[in-house]
Amino acid sequence: MRLIQLSRESLNFPPPEMALREPNGLLAIGGDLSPSRLLAAYQRGIFPWFSAGDPILWWSPDPRAVLLPETFHLSRSMKRFHQRSPYRVTLNQAFKTVIDGCASERDEGTWITPEVKHAWLRLFEMGKAQSIEVWQDDEVVGGMYGLALGQVFCGESMFSRRENASKTALLVFSRYFHQNGGRLIDCQILNPHTASLGAQEVSRAVYLNSLQMLGQQSVAEDCWQVKTLF
After folding, report:
1. DSSP string, 133-144
2. Pick the CATH number of 4-61 from 3.40.50.720, 3.30.70.3550, 3.30.950.10, 3.30.360.10
3. Which positions make up the signal peptide (predicted)?
């Protein structure tokens, strides 16, 4: 199969099933990072990922990594840590700080370029993107951000500058999301960190079916209002 070139004039994407097997999930190239295109992509199970200086690449891997909030794996050591946690966790209080942290905490370099940051800040201003902040005193020491689609949360990136800060973000958010009607957290591609917390791989077909069904369902009305979670 050939790689599809997206047009800036159209928000259409090829079907995710047309994605390449190698590299796994690469579907299309080009387009832009406008809020409308990003929303159209995530609603179809597609996300952008590319290196600075490269064209925009769009992906829909098979299998897909997901986390069911009710099956979050809490190790004994993490349970002990959380019981005496030095952290405070908030929702949507410092989105820019979180995305800046995610961009800077990457030894291998970052794909979160200024253009990507701008796109996500616009989504946040529209009420579509969300952030979870982990604070120690008055400093954000960890967190995560992503996009809410009904009862699905598409996790985009996380960072940690203190012990277990990103794990705390995902733990607290998973419990909160589940309590407010959330059913699925999209982790995109499985890695040792998310696997240790209970993420698992499902086929792309299963993920797309879940996204179609759960993306149309609502969470609690005040789910995404600014608040302290822990």
Report:
1. EEEETTEEEEEE
2. 3.30.70.3550
3. none
